[in-house]
Design brief:
941 residues; 23 helices; flat
Length: 941
Amino acid sequence: MTYLVASLLTTATVGMTFTGCIDNDEPYGIEQLRGAKAELLKSKKALVEAEAQYKLALAEAEKVKAAAEAAYYDAMRAKTEAEIAEIRQRMDDAARIAEQQLQNLKVAYEQALLAYEKERLELSAQQQTVLDGFYTKYFTALNNYNEKYMAYVEAQKTLVDNALDPDGSDYDAKKDVENGVTEAQKDLDDAQADIEDLNEQLAEAKTWKPSELGAKLTAYQDQVEENTEKMKLINLTIAENNNESEEGKALVAAKKALDALYDEEVEIPAYTFNADGTITIPGLTEPQEVIGEGWSYTWKTQYNYHGYNDALNALVNFKNDIRRYVLDDNDVEWTKAEINSLEAEKKEKAAEFDRLFAGWKMFADAYNVGGTPKYDALMSYDELKKAVDAYNAQLPATQAAKDAYYAAQKAAQEAWDAYNEKNNLDGDAWNDYYEAVNAANEAYSKAVEAANNELDKTLTALNNAVVKAQQEKNAADSKYMTAQGLADKYTDDADLKKAAEAAKKVAEDAAKALETAEKARDEQAPKAQAKAEKANDLAAATRDNAIADAEKARELALNDAPQIAGPLLDAANAADNKVNEARDAYNEAWTELSELVRVWDNETQSYAGVYGAVNNQVEEINKEYQYEEEWYDGENRHYTWTPSSDYGLYYQFQSEVNGSQWDAEVAIPECSVADVCAYPSNEIVYNIKRLSSKVYGGYYRDVNDDDILDIPSAQLIPLTKDDIDKMLAKYGVAEIEYPNSYNYYFGLFGRTLYYDNRIEVANTYITNKPVIEAAFEDVQTQIDNLVASYDEQDGKVEEARKAVSDAEEAVEELNADSWAEYYELQRQNNVADEMITAISEAAEATGVAETDQYTQETIDKAIENIEQSIKDKEESIPGLEEALARAKYILDQYEKGLISSAELAALGVEKAKLAMEAAKEELDAAKARLDAAIKSVEGAE
């Protein structure tokens, strides 16, 4: 009951054209395990252990899945026997690991089932009955699903086997398609038999009574148990046939013989090329050990270290390495014509090297550690220096014209300032007049405000005194009236009489005080009013006098203004004329200077001046030292590399010049080659690196790794062949690989060395042809002997495999009747399981917990479930008939030679995948029913 076998080889369906991909979803069995409900069990240790086993297996399964994907695509490209054998071994290993995982997971689930058997004893008989049926269906579905997934694994393996050897004995295509017809026929027959049996059971169910239903359920369970016991006995018979019969013993012996061949050690002879030192070709003068002492392999370990695969690869790789010493680059024998061609190619590469070396050296000479580059080392330096000098020669005159212009501009400004100061006398007069009027009015307003405030203050004080006296009189009158009332009431009381007289005196005094306050107010208020009016009149007179004086001053100023401003205006106009003259002179000088910076020459159709010299230098360097480069972005393309340059310094200089034109505070800048050259230090460094890589290759490094500002110092020093050889020796490169290293890693210089080597090798070959060809043939002989030895062992293994296959067929024939009986019992159990499930689900649906509670409703629901099972079976018949017809069609097409074994293998994968998906649907349904049953039992506890 393996869940994880499902993940061992999850390559998706591979079509007729052998395209495919890996399915990275979590194995379905693992998903089922994670979703299983264990709340019912008090002891979950066994299930936990089982899940842990799946997790461990999953990690290994992922490795096998990746190996399977790689094996298929490798199989499509495999060329050599070693490659084919290695891929086949990988797939055998994958299947073996899958089988091992199957065994591990079976043990884990058997433990889980034993745990359930113990815990179920705590349930009632009815609960046991309900859950037993659902668990049985669930684990049966699981087992079926895993078997289908294992078949899918095997189909993938067959697909790879066929890609490796379409006509090999490992893949019996005819037997496979014949089995396909047999299996499809059996599936159809079983389904039809199931329908017939279920219809019989349905007819009987319609006669059931509620009191009989419990016994019926027990009878079905007993039938399953009885058949299961029979199946166990059949399994024992099959096992006895497999091991004790003559056919079984022959199979065991055949397998032992095959295992012995798998473990037989095959020695690989040691081999050293040019052991006697008779070959004198450059790079092959020393003996080369290709296969060492003690190399060997067994069929199981042929891919281990120093095994068959290592030996074959070592020989083949060495042969490929030395073939250039026997054949030219076109794999034909060296000729004088080919040598002439190499010499012509070398001459072309040498010329290219000399040209770009000159550019490399130019930039290397210009490079200056930590300082300004030595620009005089660059091509066209003289032209640029001449343009810079011409600019600097014109600069003083232009600066003088600029200074004269700004001096004239300053003088004119001063003249106009003087004129403007006097020209506005009329306005000043009026401004003074308005200021005086405003001041007079303001003084008047303040004086009036002060007088009025003083008046208000006096009147307020007088009124307040009257109010206070009135309040005191009112209080005294009130006290008097009270005292007199008491005295009148108590006429005999002398004290009251005295108090009344005293109060009368106070009231009379208060009346006099009020009279005095009113008199003071009436006398002083008119006087205060008159004083205020007099102050207002004085303020008005003062204001009027100030305004009259301002009018007189204004008239005098307006009369004098014209005589003062006239001469100043004439002087300002004269100063403007001098400014215009100075500006014209400055513009003329500036035009001459700016043309020395940059100007378009219509005659030459190019730029002149400093910019023209910079541009010409860049164009000449680009033209002289450019080269063709190739890069890839989906298709091959070419582009022209030119030395890197940067006009940034020039544009900065030009901006500074233009910015100084109309800024009196900024002097027009001087110029130097360093200010405008398009090759500042960073560009020189970059060009040294690029040209160094082109001329001497990207592996060109100083032996001491001594860098100068990120430039390896060796990149500033010409390289020699001895330098390269020392470098290759330092990094352990074999001498035989020197020419290839020259060609691939050391630029144009290395290519010239490569051509030198090829020419030398070709001349040596022509001179010493027999010895060299014999040596080359000796390597091929070693390869042929090794492959022949392997083929001999392969023949023995293949013969032993055939013996195992024949013995297996004999055992299968011996077990044929037993298997037929086994499968029929299994089918009967499936029908009985359908009936058990129908009754159990009916009990659950009608809320029945015990058998004595069954009702007619329970029977009706069970009948409905049986009818649904029959309907499901009947609906599957067209698909099964179609599958059978398809299997027969495929057999017919194969027998007629109209379908290839490769297409059959692909169809096998598709068929296995469909069967696996159907088993998955069955497992889903069983899992849902089990979950519902567990929930029902838990809810009833």
